[in-house]
Every structure is written in structure tokens, then in C-alpha cells.
Specification:
heterodimer, A: five-stranded antiparallel β-sheet, three-stranded antiparallel β-sheet, 21 helices, 42% helix, elongated, B: mainly alpha, Cytochrome Bc1 Complex, Chain D, domain 2, 2 domains, 6 strands, globular
């Protein structure tokens, strides 16, 4: 009788393991349950039944009765191998980074067939009479249990019916991802995508202003891209953290420490802004803009305890993922994520009430020479610049592991999301700031000549796949700071300096666009009132613009020309307004993208 | 033996996990809109009056009749920092309101002309919440209340039976003196206040117009009291109770039904939806190791099913951080039931402001006061109902 139970146990482990093979492709709801049962069932069976039995069995047959059984010895050997490889798979996992993981996986898989074969040979005498009993019992053991499928269906009904209900539990907190992807988390934690909503003072003020001006429903327009999790919860507005009476410093805290602390205290509280799964659970994206993406949150394949918050369960869930991470990879990474159309679902904005385009970064890229699918070497997608590591001012793909123990990658797509906004990320982390600055400095080139007392300054957009500047370009300042000195070191021409209040002098050469409202007045902060385009001097991708500046007639040569192409992310007047609500906000520094000095005889 | 016990454990765990799905759900009563209204009205949940005559009927008193001039004077005092020792705090510093509650451009005005407003006020005055949106109130010279008590909203509080967290103030007039005298709030004695006001020509004239005996502390109280009585808000909920079925969304109506059926209205009742009784909190305390009413998954199970969970946490007096160690009336954890009108605007919640999230607060109330794990969907519906209680201050023409 005892031997019968032992056989049953071995077959339980064998069948449950075999079912996990890709070949069977069983439904996910069964898969995750079986994976859990296989691992933890095997541990229990091994410790409670098989090892004690094997000890007495070997002691009695080999030492006391002096039987010599080759099949028995071989069986023991293979069992040992499977035991070791199984332990390795469970504790370290098959994450792709080390050869032992792959080796363990194959030993564990094919060894089990050898093991069952040897068991048959070892038990030749009793094999067939027992075989029938074993199959019948196994059949009973694996009869599909309905309870589990029912649960998943319930979830589907609740969420697929036009996705009426979403709750904070559906939004896996980004801090959970940190455990296995610490590097990526660190890059993202100080990036602008993380700080798009509650921790971005400019956004908070503008969302409030939009709500005041157009009614509270209008906030949803902003939140669709800036704060998708709050939208899914039907929240009316973006809210900020509070710690007792103090608002935890959102501007200078490095590494999203506020988020981590909040998660420890209230793991189920909703994370605002663009979190990991806000992007990594997008299943469809149309390049239209205004959050034209499809999120699938509730129909995720989750491993056992993937959503738990207690240390023990989190530990188990990580082991389960590591042992067989393919499903996890499929769930959170799709080929779509490498295409520009994917980014376009948010990096294209138009006014919902009039269809007027406010931001058309994607469309600018589409017309640019960088969009060239016929020549793969020339073609550059968004991520080729904005998610590629920069070093010493040049693109130098980051090599190494993005996941702990994962595969060695040649080009890790970094999550600094380098771009125009060097300022807010730079307040937190100099690395994030430096990535953005390096990228900005690759974008434009200056040239200058003087002909018949006229100064010609050429600015060429050499690096950006979109207009320079792009984004909410009313609030971006790209301008020329020009100083011309004559032979006596006397300044004969000057433009583009900052005045005492921090604003750019009047009559400077500024590359931007200015929106006007229906009366033709500049819209100021209210960019949703845009009706007429008053000015557009942005530089399209690959194009060169020339500014003509007439000098005084009687200047004394040689002339010394000093030109800077300056950039500032927010104008001083915008910062001044935001500072009323966020007094701790510093002024954004002015960045020199390109500097040119030249003398003319 | 070992094998059998293992089997037993497995069976017990599996049974507990699948039990909720095996038990048929009880069909719930679905009321029609008219039934719902009838039930609410029959249990004392009345709308805030929209006409002045009914307003006077509710709040006017012979000792302190409401007049237009008195309300205007009260409003002046309410927004005046003269009422505090160091001239930094007015009533409106903690009970944040705009001087003109119907100014739609309040935020733009504040952000372009801050005028002594703190950074919090810039964004939150426009909420018209009547609270400071902080965990605990800050008084003169940055003093923090010794018990870390949260500022309740002043809106509609004139209609409540009790005020303050321990329910010590029985009438709306009783509240004013302690606010001015308390050294953690405005820290000004009656005498000092009278002297300060008498130096101000404007107040000398105004008080003369309104009261026969000019500036006295009693008259200051009376003037502020009449103003605070006018701080009533009307919302979608009131319109629904008056017969407009389209005022509340279907989800909010389901939430209202839950609110009545699950037992919330047992305490949060009356015209103010709260503030009418003093109750114990928490009623139930899950400080034992085996927690029989918890559940492994709180997503699908309502009050119909109970299961067990293990609770290894330390003993806690409240289901949140016990900041300030306040124990309520007579140190028996007795609290005045908070007013739920405008609750969506008055986070953080509970007496010490330890809970910032409304959903979390609803979950705590369900679990610790009603012993039920509310489902996420029930919480959604209750939130929708509470949103329908959110409203703007009523402007009675007669007082303009």
C-alpha cells in the first residue's frame, strides 16, 4: 500500500510538470494553478513522503537484504538530479541570464521522462496492475475544477462590459516592478513620465486652470494621458500626496521615494501619473492622439500571488515568475511598443471641441526624413533617440541586464525618456538631466556669415525628428542670444538677453509658435482657447532657417560675433504663476544648445 | 496520520476558497426612485430648503434673529484676521471659503493676485469645502492642536445637533467662543477682542447699526453665528429628495440604496446626513488572531458571506494610525457622527485626519462599524452617492 501511494505522488509531480510544457498550451487559469501546485505540492510530497520512504527503502533493500538493482540505483541518481535542478529553478529561476538556469530547465524536463521510465522498469512486476489504478486516480485528481474558471469569468464581466469598473487593485503599483527591474525603475522614477501628474507643479496648476475655465469634466482631457489610472477610476481630478500636514516634497525627492513610502503604508492606494503598466498594458494604439490607446488591465495573466502585498506571498510570486517567465514577458512586452504609432497615441494632442492640433509631434516625425521604413538603416523611431542611452554627447547603447539575472542585452531601452524637459527631472537626478541635455545638444547646428553689413545666422535642425521645439511649444523657448562687438570691444549689436525679471528681451529671435484665441489675442496659459495660429517659427526636421540681422553702417571691422542657441523649458512668466502655488519651485535654468564665436575681417 | 491531517488542511482551505462562489446570492430589493425617496424622507433625511421662509423656519431664533445687516457683519468678522492674537488667522483660514462663493474665476484671481494667501489656499479655496484640507488644524504662530484633531467642515453644521469631535457644543453659538479663546486656535480673550474691535472705526459703526449695545463679545458671537447659519449647501441629492428623479445618476441611486440598506443611514442621518448623534468608533475591533469576518478576496463578496483570515498585527485602537491619542467623549471612543454633506471635498478623514482616501474611509466604516467587507463595486456606488451630496452654498436673495 505504501508503495502505491509513493507511485501516486511521483505521477502527480510528473503529470503536473508535463502539463506546464509549451506543447500543451493549456489555458492560463489552469496553468498558473498547476504551476503553483506542481512546485509547492512537490516540495511537500518530497519532504513528507518520498524522501522518508526512499531512506527506509534503500536502507532495507541495499544494506539489509543486499539486493542489487541497477534500475533502482539509476532511478535514485536521476531523482537527485531532478531534485537539484528543481530547487535551482525554484530559488534562482530560468531568467535567461545564466546557463545553469537553462541547463536546469532541460534536465528537469527530460530527466522526468527518464525517471518515469526507470520507475516502470524498477517496478516491472507490479507495473501494469498499478498502472490502471494510477491513471484513474490521476484522472480524478485533474478533473477540471469549475470554481476557478467561474472567478475569472466574473472578473471579465465586470471589466469587459465597456470597462465600467476599474479599481486600484487592477493597477499594479510600479514599486512592485522594482524588485526584479531595479535599474529600469530607477531610470523611470525620476523621469518625466513618472512626474506627469500629481508631482508636476506646472501640470497641477494647468489642470486646475482648465477645470476652472472649461468645467470640471474638461480635466479628463488632460488626465487621459497624464493620469490614466485616475481616469479609469472615474476620479474627477488629480490629487497630490499628503503626509500629515505636509505635502511631501514632489520636486526634489530622488528615486520616487514618496511613492515607495506610500506603497509600504497603503499598497492598494492608486498610483497616479504614467506608471509601468499604464504603458506596458497597452494592447492597441492608434496614432491619432489624445490618449487613443486601448488598455487591458483586468484580463492579465497573473501568476499566483502576483498582486499580493505580504512579504511571503510576494516572495512566492517572484519565484513562480522566475521559474517560467515566458508568460510574464508576453504579458508586458509587445512588438507594438517599439513603434512610433504607439507613442503617437499621446504625443499628438488636439482640442476635443474644435479638433485644432495643439501638439503634433508624431505628424511632424511622419513627414520627416527619419520616417523611412524602406531603408531600415535610415529609419528612426521615437525610441531610437528618446530611449537610447547617451554618453559623452553621443548615442551609446547601454549594455547589460535590464532584469536581475536576465539576459545580457546589447541595447537596453533606457527609461530616462530624455527630451526637452531637462528641468523637472534634473531637480531630482543629475543623470536624468544629463541624458536630456546631451540629447538636446545633438539637435541643432549654428552657422554665421556677414555680407554687406548684414549678419546671416543659420540654424539647422540636425538631430530632432520633429520640429524644434515641439511639445506644448507655446511654453518652450528656443532663441538666439547674439552679441556683436567691434574692433574697440564696443557692443554694436545685442539681442536675446534676459531682462531683470528673467524674461527674454523684446525683439529677440525666438523659435516657437503662438496660439491666438478667437479675438486674435495670444492665449497665454489657456491653450485650449486656441483658434488662430499667430506665429510659427519652429524649425522642421532637417531644415535650416536663416535670420537676417542688419548691422549699423559705420561699424569698425574686425567684428567679433558671439552667438548662442539658448533653450528654456518654461518661460519665466509661467514659472512665476506656478510659484504662487508651489513657492519652493526654482527657476528653470537656461541651456545653451550650441555656441558659436567667429571674427570677421 | 500526517497524510490525513495534510488532506484535512487542503480540504478546509479549498472549501473556504470556493464557498463564496457556491452560496447563491440573495436577491436584493431594488427600489424604484419614488420608493427610495419615500424611505429616505420617512427616516428624517430632508432636503436643505431653497426658499428663505423655510430657511428661517429651520434656523431663526428669537434670541438672535437673522437679519441682512447682521449676516453681513458676521461675514466681515469671519474673514477678518483681527480675531486672532497675532492677526494672522481668521475663521476662514481653517474653514476655507471664498468671500464670493459664486465666483467662477476664483482660482485665476488667487493665482494672479495671491494677497497673503498660503500656497495651499491658492488651489483649495475654490473647493468651497469649509475645511483646511489638512490633517490637523494650525492655529496662531503655527500651533498644532494637542490631540491632532482634524477640522470638520463648517458647511451645514448649523443644522447639526452636536458640534466638535466629542459633541460638546450643542448649539451653533456655543462653538464660537472656544475657537477664539483656545490658545491653539486664535488665542484671544473676550476682553482683548473687544478692545481690538473698538479701535476699528468700521466695526464701531457697523456694530452700532446692528446691535443696540454696540461692541460686546456676545454680539460678536451673535453676528458670526448668523453668518454661519447661512452656510448651507444644496446638491443633486436635495433636488432628488424634492422630486427630481433625474438629479442623481443610476449609480448614485444604487449607492443611496446601499447607504440605506447596509445601515450607514443609521448614524449618518437627518437633514445634514450626519451630526445628529454621538456614536462609538470603532464598534468592532479585530484585534484577535483569527478574524472571522475578513475574507481572502474582498472583490466579490458582500455581506452575504463571511470567512476567516489571520491577523497577526499589533493591537490597535483605531483601524488607522492613532495620531494624537484622542479618545473622544469621556475617553470612551465616543465621537460626534461627521456630517457627510460635501464629504468628497473634505479629505483627510476621521478625527485625526489619518486617512486620505475616501474609498479607504468607506471600507473602514463598512468593516469596523457594520462588520462587512464592502465590495469594490459597492464602494464605487457609495462614492457616487456621496458625490451627489456635494454642493454649493445657497444664496438666499433676501440676504443679498
Amino acid at each position: 500500500m505504501k508503495i502505491f501511494f509513493i507511485n501516486l505522488d511521483i505521477f502527480f509531480m510528473f503529470i503536473s510538470g508535463i502539463l506546464l510544457m509549451n506543447y500543451f498550451a493549456i489555458p492560463w487559469s489552469y496553468f498558473r494553478t498547476i504551476e503553483f501546485l506542481h512546485i509547492f505540492g512537490s516540495i511537500a510530497i518530497m519532504i513528507l513522503f518520498i524522501l522518508p520512504f526512499l531512506y527506509t527503502h534503500m536502507y532495507e533493500s541495499m544494506l539489509r537484504m543486499k539486493h542489487q538493482s541497477a534500475s533502482g540505483l539509476l532511478f535514485g541518481l536521476i531523482l537527485l538530479l531532478i531534485l537539484i535542478s528543481g530547487t535551482y529553478l525554484f530559488l534562482v529561476g530560468n531568467r535567461g541570464g545564466d546557463i545553469f538556469g537553462v541547463l536546469s530547465y532541460y534536465i528537469h524536463l527530460y530527466g522526468s521522462f527518464a525517471l518515469v521510465l526507470l520507475l516502470g522498469i524498477h517496478l516491472k512486476k507490479h507495473f501494469f496492475s498499478r498502472f490502471a489504478v494510477v491513471t484513474i486516480s490521476l484522472f480524478i485528481l485533474f478533473l477540471p475544477s469549475n470554481s476557478y474558471a467561474k472567478q475569472e469569468k466574473l472578473v471579465n464581466i465586470a471589466f469587459t462590459d465597456g470597462a465600467k469598473y476599474h479599481h486600484s487593485v487592477d493597477w499594479t503599483n510600479s514599486v512592485t516592478c522594482k524588485a526584479c527591474h531595479p535599474k529600469i525603475f530607477k531610470q523611470w522614477a525620476d523621469s518625466n513620465h513618472r512626474h506627469l501628474a500629481d508631482s508636476n507643479p506646472y501640470y497641477m496648476v494647468l489642470e486646475n486652470l482648465a477645470g476652472m475655465d472649461k468645467g470640471k469634466e474638461f480635466r479628463q482631457w488632460c488626465m487621459g494621458c497624464h493620469n490614466p489610472s485616475a481616469v479609469s477610476m472615474h476620479q474627477e481630478r488629480t490629487t497630490h500626496f499628503m503626509q500629515d500636514n505636509i505635502m511631501p516634497e514632489p520636486l526634489f525627492t530622488k528615486g520616487s521615494q514618496n511613492l515607495i513610502n506610500e506603497y509600504k503604508k497603503n499598497p492598494n492606494r492608486l498610483e497616479q501619473g504614467v506608471s509601468c503598466i499604464a504603458c506596458h498594458r497597452i494592447v492597441k494604439a492608434k496614432p491619432i492622439g489624445n490618449s487613443s490607446y486601448t488598455l487591458n488591465l483586468s484580463k492579465r495573466k497573473k501568476y499566483f500571488y502576483e498582486d499580493s502585498h505580504t512579504d511571503m506571498k510576494v516572495w512566492i510570486s517572484q519565484k513562480l515568475i522566475n521559474a517560467n517567465p515566458q508568460v510574464h514577458k508576453n504579458e508586458y512586452m509587445q512588438p507594438l511598443y517599439k513603434k512610433s504609432e504607439y507613442c503617437a497615441s499621446c504625443h499628438n494632442e488636439f482640442l476635443p471641441h474644435s479638433g485644432k492640433k495643439v501638439v503634433s509631434t508624431y505628424e511632424q516625425w511622419k513627414k520627416s526624413p527619419y520616417n523611412d521604413p524602406k531603408h531600415p538603416n535610415e529609419h528612426k523611431d521615437c525610441i531610437d533617440c528618446h530611449m537610447t542611452n547617451l554618453r559623452n554627447g553621443k548615442f551609446s547603447p547601454l549594455q547589460g541586464h535590464s532584469t536581475l539575472g536576465g539576459k545580457n542585452k546589447k541595447d537596453i531601452k533606457v527609461h530616462y525618456f530624455a527630451g526637452g524637459n531637462y528641468f523637472l527631472s534634473g531637480l531630482k537626478n543629475t543623470e536624468n538631466e544629463s541624458q536630456s541635455l546631451q540629447l538636446l545638444k545633438t539637435s541643432a547646428k549654428l552657422d554665421v556669415t556677414i555680407d554687406k553689413n548684414i549678419l546671416y545666422v543659420g540654424v539647422k535642425n540636425v538631430g530632432a525628428g520633429h520640429k524644434l521645439p515641439t511639445g506644448a511649444a507655446d511654453f518652450r523657448e528656443l532663441w538666439l542670444d547674439i552679441t556683436v562687438k567691434d574692433s574697440n570691444e564696443k557692443i554694436v549689436f545685442s539681442s536675446g538677453k534676459l531682462n531683470k525679471g528673467g524674461d527674454i528681451q523684446k525683439n529677440s529671435v525666438i523659435f516657437n509658435k503662438v496660439f491666438g484665441d478667437k479675438d486674435g489675442k495670444p492665449v497665454g496659459l489657456f491653450f485650449w482657447r486656441y483658434v488662430k495660429l499667430l506665429k510659427d517659427t519652429r524649425i522642421p526636421a532637417g531644415k535650416r532657417v536663416v535670420e537676417k540681422i542688419p548691422l549699423q553702417k559705420d561699424v569698425q571691422y574686425p567684428l567679433h560675433v558671439n552667438i548662442k542657441l539658448n533653450f528654456r523649458i518654461y518661460p519665466q512668466w509661467v514659472t512665476n504663476i506656478v510659484k504662487v502655488a508651489y513657492p519652493q519651485l526654482p527657476n528653470p535654468p537656461v541651456i545653451t544648445i550650441e555656441h558659436l564665436e567667429k571674427s570677421f575681417e | 496520520m500526517l497524510r490525513l491531517s495534510l488532506l484535512a488542511i487542503v480540504i478546509i482551505v479549498v472549501w473556504i476558497e470556493i464557498l463564496p462562489y457556491l452560496i447563491p446570492k440573495k436577491p436584493k430589493n431594488f427600489y424604484s426612485d419614488d420608493d427610495l425617496r419615500e424611505i429616505a424622507l420617512s427616516r428624517g433625511m430632508h432636503p436643505i430648503p431653497k426658499d428663505y421662509a423655510k430657511f428661517l423656519q429651520l434656523l431663526d431664533s428669537k434670541e438672535n434673529p437673522i437679519t441682512k445687516e447682521k449676516v453681513a457683519l458676521g461675514k466681515q468678522l469671519f474673514f477678518d484676521t483681527l480675531l486672532s492674537k497675532d492677526n494672522t488667522i481668521s475663521c476662514a483660514s481653517c474653514h476655507m471659503l471664498g468671500k464670493n462663493p459664486h465666483n467662477k474665476n476664483q482660482f485665476l484671481d488667487d493665482i494672479s493676485h495671491p494677497q497673503e494667501k498660503t500656497s495651499c489656499m491658492i488651489c483649495h479655496i475654490k473647493d468651497e469645502s469649509g475645511t483646511d484640507r489638512l490633517s490637523t488644524a494650525i492655529g496662531v504662530e503655527g500651533a498644532i492642536a494637542p490631540n491632532h484633531l482634524n477640522t470638520p467642515t463648517i458647511l451645514n453644521s448649523a443644522l447639526a445637533k452636536y458640534r466638535m469631535w466629542d459633541g460638546s457644543a450643542k448649539t451653533s453659538m456655543d462653538v464660537i467662543a472656544p475657537m477664539i479663546h483656545d490658545k491653539y486656535k486664535m488665542n484671544l480673550s473676550s476682553k482683548e477682542l473687544q478692545e481690538k474691535l473698538k479701535k476699528n472705526i468700521y466695526y464701531v459703526q457697523e456694530f452700532k447699526k446692528v446691535f443696540a449695545d454696540g461692541i460686546t463679545f456676545k454680539n460678536v458671537e451673535k453676528a458670526i453665528d448668523t453668518y454661519q447659519k447661512t452656510l448651507l449647501t444644496r446638491s443633486a441629492y436635495d433636488r432628488f429628495l424634492e422630486g427630481d428623479n433625474s438629479a442623481m445618476s443610476a449609480e448614485a441611486k444604487r449607492g443611496f440604496k446601499d447607504f440605506i440598506q447596509l445601515g450607514c443611514k443609521g448614524c449618518h442621518t437627518g437633514i445634514t446626513v450626519g451630526g445628529q448623534t454621538i456614536q462609538k468608533f470603532p464598534v468592532r475591533n479585530y484585534n484577535h488572531i483569527i478574524d472571522v469576518t475578513g475574507i481572502f478576496s474582498r472583490e466579490y463578496i458582500g455581506r452575504d458571506v463571511a470567512a476567516f483570515n489571520f491577523n497577526f498585527k499589533q493591537y490597535r485602537r483605531y483601524p488607522f494610525e492613532n495620531k494624537g491619542g484622542y479618545l473622544g467623549k469621556d475617553n470612551k471612543q465616543l465621537f460626534r457622527v461627521p456630517i457627510l454633506r460635501n464629504v468628497t471635498k473634505t479629505s483627510p478623514y476621521f478625527h485625526n485626519g489619518a486617512v486620505f482616501d475616501l474609498r479607504e474611509a468607506i471600507h473602514i466604516m463598512g468593516k469596523y462599524q457594520l462588520s462587512m467587507e464592502l465590495t469594490e463595486i459597492q464602494i464605487d456606488e457609495i462614492v457616487a452617492f456621496l458625490k451627489s451630496l456635494e454642493g454649493n452654498v445657497v444664496e438666499y436673495k433676501e440676504l443679498k
